[in-house]
Amino acid sequence: MISTLVSLLxxxxxxxxxxxxxxxxxxxxxxxxxxxxxxxIAAQTAxxxxxxxxxxxxxxxxxxxxxxxxxxxxxxxxxxxxxxNRSILDTTQCATYxxxxxxxxxxxxxIGTQLRxxxxxxxxxxxxxxxxxxxxxxxxxxxxxxxxxxxxDGLWTPIPTPDQDSRQVIQAAADAYLDLFNDPTVxxxxxxxxxxxxxxxxxxxxxxxxxxNVGVPSGVNIFNRKYVIxxxxxxxxxxxxxxxxxxxxxxRVEKGKIRFVHTLxxxxxxxxx
Length: 273
Ligand SMILES: *[C@@H]1O[C@H](CO)[C@@H](O)[C@H](O)[C@H]1NC(C)=O
Ligand SMILES: *[C@@H]1O[C@H](CO)[C@@H](O)[C@H](O)[C@H]1NC(C)=O
Ligand SMILES: *[C@@H]1O[C@H](CO)[C@@H](O)[C@H](O)[C@H]1NC(C)=O
Ligand SMILES: *[C@@H]1O[C@H](CO)[C@@H](O)[C@H](O)[C@H]1NC(C)=O
Ligand SMILES: *[C@@H]1O[C@H](CO)[C@@H](O)[C@H](O)[C@H]1NC(C)=O
Description:
Blueprint (H helix, E strand, L loop, with lengths): L1 H9 L19 H17 L3 H4 L2 E9 L2 E2 L15 E7 L4 E8 L6 E9 L7 E9 L8 H10 L15 H14 L9 E9 L2 E2 L19 E9 L4 E8 L2 E10 L2 E9 L8
Parallel strand pairs: 1-6, 7-12
Antiparallel strand pairs: 1-2, 3-4, 4-5, 5-6, 7-8, 9-10, 10-11, 11-12
Bound molecules: 2-acetamido-2-deoxy-beta-D-glucopyranose (NAG) (5 copies).
């Protein structure tokens, strides 16, 4: 790119008409992605998607529970008081994942949302996919989810740079876990302690020996995996088809080993979209 500009400039033709940028473009930074998740959370709180629509591509792909919807008519039009939120930021793909817990008596929800922005600049929202779990979904109890997720506050913190895993290592840990459901011979890099929050079910008791290796259903193919990976937080979210269900599996990985798993499973079959 620079050499192309230099060679163009050396031709002389553009010397007086080509203004070189004074600073590199901001690109897809953590700051930008954080601002986007703030916009998303504010939109859900207000029940007003207009700030997201303002940055959305005209060709925005929006789904709820893997069903194509109009963003202007979906869950973002319902004001929801958010009791807990946690986001991960993927500057490589220019994407984010946010977990929202809403304990409202009338509209309790636990929502997981992947947002994908234009590569490089991050200026435009290209795709938004939400799983909106509610009473009747797998293990749903927003009060319980809030209790456990809040107890983990302070444990999903930034990992010091020398200890950060590569994207490949983080994804491989998630893939091993997801593969286990269809192949009991897979070696999963279990960490200790490790806890799984599935809906509102929690596998541990906050002891140093908590283990995630407490069994998974067998014969479940987990496919259509869509990843958001944050090396700083050592976390990957996978939106997947879990057998037949829309599902999110989010993993905190430390030094290659799984420490926390959060899952959302919508009790409805995936339909094509
Ligand atoms: C989405 O809904 C809004 C509000 O009703 C409407 O203006 C817009 O045309 C719809 N978009 C699509 C793609 O149907
Ligand atoms: C989201 O969580 C952060 C702490 O992680 C908190 O400071 C912020 O107020 C929360 N936002 C909302 C809308 O609750
Ligand atoms: C949800 O969990 C809370 C806290 O564990 C419990 O008090 C409540 O009874 C549960 N609600 C339902 C509907 O099971
Ligand atoms: C936590 O659970 C383990 C089994 O996973 C059990 O051995 C231990 O006694 C429990 N600890 C407490 C404090 O309940
Ligand atoms: C969902 O899919 C399963 C397996 O294909 C099927 O047995 C079940 O009837 C379906 N349920 C609904 C609600 O469509």
